[in-house]
Amino acid sequence: MTLFLGAVLGAALGGGLWLAVVAVLDARRTPIAVRVLPYVRDLPRPASLPAPPSSSNAFSGVFGPPLQAAGRAVEKVLGGSASVRRRLQRAGLDADVQAFRVEQVLWGLSAFTLAAVPSALVALTSPDRSVPLLVFCGIAFVIGVLLRENRLTAQVAHRERSILQEFPTVAELLALSVAAGESPLSALDRVVRRTSGELSAELARVLAEVRTGTPLTRAFDQMAARSGLAVVSRFAEGIAIAVERGTPLSDVLHAQAGDVREASRRALIETGARREVLMMVPVVFLVLPVVVVFAFWPGLVGLRLVVP
Q1: Nearest Cα residue to 160 out of 89, 100, 265
Q2: In this structure, are residues 200 and 159 in contact, taking their beta carbons and an 8 Å threshold?
Q3: What region holds the Type II secretion system protein GspF domain (predicted)?
Q4: pLDDT value, residue 147
Q5: Residue 202 and residue 210: Cα distance in Å, rounded?
Q6: The pLDDT of residue 51
Q7: Buried-exposed string 233-256: b where 16+ CB fall within 10 A, e elsewhere
Q8: Which tens digits make up the pLDDT trace of 51-69?
Q9: Which of 98, 115, 133, 260 could join 140 via S-S bond, C-beta 3.0 to 4.6 A?
Q10: 3 state SS of 238
Q11: Does pTM surpass 0.70?
Q12: Which distant-in-sequence residues (6+ apart) come within 8 Å of 249 by Cβ?
């Protein structure tokens, strides 16, 4: 018995030492993915490759297939996958159309739940209202689905406004770097490292593509194709043409920054003119009636006192 116990303990000790040695050797060996990841992690994933596997959990395992089926049903009903894909690119989102449809289903289910809770309470007290309440819950689901699409459009508009606000500063910094003697690629790297924002993220993507072998002009052409703004398209095309033909890049960037500032100034003036008309609404419908009442009320009271 003592010999058997000693053999078991020796085997356990040997197995533990062997596992420890294997773990140490494996930890000292750097995986190829870790060595390559810093150079490719900021690159866009080609559409031809499958999406990376997401972290599996109980929720995705149980509710994932029904949600994906519901997303495909929403896609069949609404359609417009090309428009959705284009807006996802303009919003700077990494999700594909299928993932966006699943988000729409989740938004619809949330709206359905918010409408179903009070509807169930009402249906318990008034069973004859069950059918209208069920229709109301269905309408809430549809509204939730459409709200997610409206939210995507709002995200696109917000990102484009941010890019327009950042563009003059980024263009001026690029122009100063180029005028100081740096190459377009070095100037782009300097500006990306010292700025943050939506336009800086787009330029970082261009820089990552250039560092992995894509020509600078082609990377800027792809940026112009992704962007929904004419200003950014002109900016990308101007840099591409300046690099190809050797034209003065700093003058082009200064001119484009000035054009954007002038366009922003005109938009601000137009917005102010529209707000001026809206400001007349409280004046006409609130302030002016009160002034008229204060002006004529004493006279009306005096007439009532004088006339028998």
Answers
A1: 89
A2: no
A3: 172-294
A4: 92
A5: 13
A6: 47
A7: bbbbbbbbebbeeeeebbebbbeb
A8: 444 444 555 656 677 778 8
A9: 115
A10: helix
A11: no
A12: 174, 175, 178, 184, 239, 242, 243
48 SS3 class: coil
Write down the residue that tokens 């060595």 correspond to. Answer: 35
Backbone torsions φ then ψ of 72, nearest 5 degrees: -65, -35
> CA 22 to CA 10: how far, in whole Å?
18
Lookup: tokens for 226? 């992704």
Structure tokens at 208: 């990552």
Beta-carbon contacts of 67 under 8 Å, excluding residues fewer than 6 positions away, are: 102, 105, 106
The amino acid occupying position 265 is R
Helices (H), 56-129: 58-78, 81-91, 97-125
**How is residue 9 written in tokens?**
């303990």
CA distance 105 to 122: 25
DSSP one-letter string for 107-120? HHHHHHHHHHHHHH
**Alpha-carbon distances, residue 57 vs 64, 68, 177, 190 (angstroms):** 10, 16, 49, 41
Q: Tokens for 61, please give them.
A: 């395992």
* DSSP letter string, 251-273: HHHHHHHHHHHHHHHHHHHHHHH
| Beta carbons of 226 and 199 less than 8 angstroms apart | no
Residues recorded for the chain: 308
